[in-house]
Inverse folding.
């Protein structure tokens, strides 16, 4: 295969090339790399072009982080690389270049987590190539491995009929009980964070400082790639979702709510309004962003999964995160230390939460 490799340094050229490839992902977009570069990562981008036609064949937005104070790095290709995964020759060329780059950057390892289904031909080819080249199934998932997808191509009436009856009823109930939904703006960023923080405290999960989310939400709103929707009762905000879009995929990436007025089912109406917004903006897939690793009622995400599945979506399993250990010894030490680091972070979160109460 005759390929040329480019390193784009301009937003439009990168995104246009990415959108010509199969199933491009938001986390491989120029905007996501730029956003992460403002929060401790360096973003670099590789584009593989067909030498004869000059058409894009593969792309990888690579995030690199230095492990201070050591002169070592970790590398991560979020939801990528993007290519035709059934093309074994192309796949080996892409993985080979990533492996070489990791060595030149003195990285401990390179992590990838492409949205590839293991039971599909592309998944089988991907897994075979990764194992043959020495990649290892990672114990550390950065993104959710699995998700729930809703096909937005049928009519709105068809989408409603595809939901469980209780979910349709709750959408109507919310409307009858006076829940309204409005589009959010940058002026709502503090409100959005407040709702998200309320949810985090109830769910006992760690969130980042306010400035991080103001950037994560605001910069994508400015780029036309994100839209908050806010549910209100008598003018009082009670719940929110933030929907991202890239190509034909919309993603429900963030949500938050208060306990007040939960009996009026604002979250059901918000999801329905979000699907309609996505369809109006040319999206054909609504990605509900996150599902259990295993379909087991003991999984901590089971309740969230039941809520999402009620909207008529399909559970989709992916191959998950895979690491290429550039340094075998360093990678082993990293894997041994990370559980301790994460345990310390959880303890600190609980300790601070107790002080706040």
């Amino acid at each position: 295969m005759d390929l040329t490799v480019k390193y784009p340094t301009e937003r439009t050229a990168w995104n246009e090339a990415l959108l010509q490839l199969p199933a491009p992902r938001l986390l491989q977009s120029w905007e996501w790399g730029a956003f992460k570069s403002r929060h401790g990562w360096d973003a670099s981008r590789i584009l593989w072009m067909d030498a004869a036609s000059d058409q894009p064949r593969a792309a990888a937005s690579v995030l690199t982080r230095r492990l201070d104070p050591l002169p070592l790095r970790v590398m991560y290709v979020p939801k990528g690389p993007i290519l035709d995964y059934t093309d074994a020759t192309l796949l080996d060329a892409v993985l080979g270049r990533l492996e070489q780059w990791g060595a030149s950057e003195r990285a401990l390892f390179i992590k990838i987590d492409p949205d590839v289904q293991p039971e599909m031909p592309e998944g089988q080819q991907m897994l075979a190539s990764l194992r043959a080249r020495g990649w290892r199934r990672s114990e550390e998932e950065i993104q959710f491995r699995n998700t729930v997808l809703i096909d937005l191509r049928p009519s709105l009436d068809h989408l409603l009929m595809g939901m469980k009856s209780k979910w349709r009823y709750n959408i109507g109930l919310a409307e009858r009980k006076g829940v309204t939904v409005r589009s959010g703006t940058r002026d709502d960023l503090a409100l959005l964070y407040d709702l998200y923080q309320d949810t985090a405290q109830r769910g006992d999960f760690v969130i980042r400082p306010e400035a991080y989310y103001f950037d994560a939400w605001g910069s994508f709103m400015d780029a036309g790639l994100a839209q908050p929707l806010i549910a209100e009762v008598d003018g009082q905000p009670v719940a929110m979702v933030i929907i991202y879009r890239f190509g034909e995929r919309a993603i429900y990436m963030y949500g938050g709510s208060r306990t007040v007025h939960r009996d009026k089912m604002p979250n059901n109406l918000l999801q329905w309004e979000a699907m309609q917004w996505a369809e109006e903006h040319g999206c054909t897939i609504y990605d509900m962003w996150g599902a259990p690793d295993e379909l087991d009622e003991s999984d901590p995400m089971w309740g969230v999964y039941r809520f999402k599945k009620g909207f008529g979506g399909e559970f989709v399993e992916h191959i998950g995160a895979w690491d290429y250990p550039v340094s075998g010894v360093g990678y082993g030490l990293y894997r041994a230390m990370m559980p301790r680091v994460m345990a310390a972070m959880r303890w600190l979160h609980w300790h601070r939460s107790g002080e706040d109460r």
